[in-house]
């Protein structure tokens, strides 16, 4: 899954780094935590088998916008990919995709060199801290994709071995991405304890059709984020703080292929694309993914400015390009190129900043909650207004023109 961690549906909840709304509307501090292990072994920490070290363990808060882990209804997935039941499954197309995944274009791409450690040692001050957070969040997001795809590969083996193998090969890609990021963390003497995360984190349940919408968007937005950062740093190498970005060009083609596979899956399930409900859900997922990314990134402007980007400009570029790509398959998308859409996003950022400030204040919980009420009402009304903006009808009923392709 993409580093964007975009498919987080936390929108009807206040965006706050240290607390979250539980069902029933009570605010309680989050108890689960990500664990980061301090490591003295430079470059030696493998993602697949992170070593637990009791000494030097530090803990960081898991936030509402931290990339999530997903699970789904695997029995329903099996039915959807049963060729006896679903005659629309185009096995020839899936076999072609499988061959492409088997080619494994990036088999030898993720090879490190001494530049990594040298660059990490040079990075000091606030940029170092925010950069570590970027590596942690990206690693968690990639690992989230690995877990979901691996399980789908396992569960679909009997009903549809071709689709199952593609999922397994996609989990190979995501494990590689997560591993590469975790090795990056080792340059900063840290490592994400992925084994601990697998067991300790809560999994968000999505029905299969929602997994398709959310994961498609997550992969495509991840592609656009990576390629945009890559192109920017290629043109402005003086902002290159760490060599990992040089790998984004080929890396993002993995995300693009993953997205194309979900396009093919959606095409094979036209009931998820061709009615009014599909249009409403498509717009809902677009909105939740775009808003989550925008709020997330605006809380981390120091990172984007640190690599020479204007956060809002970068995000709008990614949103517009992702939306154009998505319009090729979703039956409706948002009119993100209408300036009013950005104005609404910016108002949400202002409200979110106030919510974060309340969370960080010294007020007692009751007072914090009272202060939050009007802000949450404001945020919800902006979201609803953005959702109700006239949409762009898109997609193609017979899909005749649609073929997965590398967007570049
Ligand atoms: Fe991916
Ligand atoms: Fe990935």
From TrEMBL:
This protein's record includes keyword Signal: no
Enzyme class: oxidoreductase
GO biological process, one term: chlorophyll biosynthetic process
Cofactor: Fe cation
Protein name (record): magnesium-protoporphyrin IX monomethyl ester (oxidative) cyclase
The keyword NAD appears for this protein: no
A GO molecular-function descriptor: magnesium-protoporphyrin IX monomethyl ester (oxidative) cyclase activity
Family to which the UniProt record says this protein belongs: Belongs to the AcsF family.
Keywords linked to the UniProt accession: Chlorophyll biosynthesis, Iron, Metal-binding, NADP, Oxidoreductase, Photosynthesis
Domain of life: Eukaryota
This protein's pathway: Porphyrin-containing compound metabolism; chlorophyll biosynthesis
GO cellular-component term (any): chloroplast thylakoid membrane
Record's catalysed reaction(s): Mg-protoporphyrin IX 13-monomethyl ester + 3 NADPH + 3 O2 + 2 H(+) = 3,8-divinyl protochlorophyllide a + 3 NADP(+) + 5 H2O
Bias (Low complexity): 38-49
Domain spans labelled Rubrerythrin diiron-binding: 133-266
Region (Disordered): 38-57
E.C. numbers: 1.14.13.81
């Amino acid at each position: 899954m993409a580093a964007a961690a975009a498919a987080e549906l936390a929108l009807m909840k206040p965006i706050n780094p240290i607390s979250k709304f539980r069902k029933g509307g009570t605010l309680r501090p989050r108890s689960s935590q990500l664990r980061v292990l301090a490591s003295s072994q430079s470059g030696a920490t493998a993602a697949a088998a992170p070593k637990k070290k009791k000494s030097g363990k530090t803990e960081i808060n898991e936030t509402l916008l931290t990339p999530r882990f997903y699970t789904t209804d695997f029995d329903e997935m099996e039915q959807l990919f049963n060729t006896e039941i679903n005659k629309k499954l185009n096995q020839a197309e899936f076999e072609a995709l499988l061959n492409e995944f088997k080619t494994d274009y990036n088999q030898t791409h993720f090879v490190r060199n001494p530049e990594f450690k040298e660059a990490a040692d040079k990075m000091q001050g606030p940029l170092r801290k925010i950069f570590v957070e970027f590596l942690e969040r990206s690693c968690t997001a990639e690992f989230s994709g690995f877990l979901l795809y691996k399980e789908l590969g396992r569960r679909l083996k009997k009903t549809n071995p071709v689709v199952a193998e593609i999922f397994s090969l996609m989990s190979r890609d995501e494990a590689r991405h997560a591993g590469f990021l975790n090795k990056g963390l080792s340059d900063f003497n840290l490592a994400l304890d992925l084994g601990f995360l697998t067991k300790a984190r809560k999994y968000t349940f999505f029905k299969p059709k929602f997994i398709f919408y959310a994961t498609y968007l997550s992969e495509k937005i991840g592609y656009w984020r990576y390629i945009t950062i890559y192109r920017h740093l290629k043109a402005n190498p003086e902002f290159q703080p760490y060599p990992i970005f040089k790998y984004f060009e080929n890396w993002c083609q993995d995300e693009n292929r993953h997205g194309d596979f979900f396009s093919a899956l959606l095409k094979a399930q036209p009931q998820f694309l061709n009615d009014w409900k599909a249009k409403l859900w498509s717009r809902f997922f677009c909105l939740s993914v775009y808003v989550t990314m925008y709020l997330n990134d605006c809380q981390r402007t120091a990172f984007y400015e640190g690599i020479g980007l204007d956060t809002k400009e970068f995000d709008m570029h990614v949103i517009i390009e992702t939306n154009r790509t998505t319009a090729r398959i979703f039956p409706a998308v948002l009119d993100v190129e209408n300036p009013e859409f950005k104005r609404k996003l910016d108002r949400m950022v202002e409200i979110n900043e106030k919510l974060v400030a309340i969370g960080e204040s010294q007020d007692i919980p009751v007072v914090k909650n009272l202060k939050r009420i009007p802000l949450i009402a404001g945020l919800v009304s902006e979201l609803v207004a953005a959702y109700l903006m006239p949409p762009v009808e898109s997609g193609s009923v017979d899909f005749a023109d649609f073929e997965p392709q590398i967007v570049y």
